[in-house]
Amino acid sequence: MRNKIKKLAVFIGILVIVIPFFPSSVSASSITENSIFNLTNSERQKNNQPALSWNYKLAQAARDKASDMINRDYFSHNTSDGKTPWTFITAEGYNYIYAGENLAMNFTDSGAVVSAWMNSSGHRANILSNNFKELGVGVISGEYQGYTTIMVVQMFGAQATSVYEENNESSSQPVKKTPAKPVVKPEVTVSSDSGINKEIEVNVTSSSTKILKKRIEDFQKACNRLIVIINNKDKQKT
Fold it and tell me: What whole-number distance in Å separates Cα of residue 208 and Cα of residue 216?
């Protein structure tokens, strides 16, 4: 039975450069999804972080988000009707445990976009985060508030570890993780062996015998004292 995955959204960053675009600059743009992806991994490599893998679901979610911002004329993490960025990710069937989003617009060069993100603490944190394993990028051009621009969206993510993992060897069969045998703490039991009762009975009997013996001895001493007293009285009479 699959456990419900608790989704955790990390810091999301937004970057706006308010310099209106002109059609000529858009046509001359050198921003591509692939270049943004490669430059992001270059920054991770410089900071001793493992490279992110390209994920087509995250890429489609990023494209959908960029298109939605163009079509509905907004620029923010949440849509105009209040939907979060994670709505786009889950809509593509990406079950995440960590997710993040970076946004940018009004750039014509991929290097400038990534450089600006790296100079912003929040965006930099997303790019270099250990939590993320995969990345998708969306680059969409269109009209925003009366002028032509390019929306750039990064969607970061990490999926839950599957029960099945591929073997490093050339085997077509998945290797299923075998759960460790559960260890049950031994119960603390009280023995009902009659030997315990026998021991108690012996102790009680032994104790009773000692008491009875002492009482007999005391009685004998009392009798002896009484005999002495009687003998003394008889001597006095004679």
Answer: 12
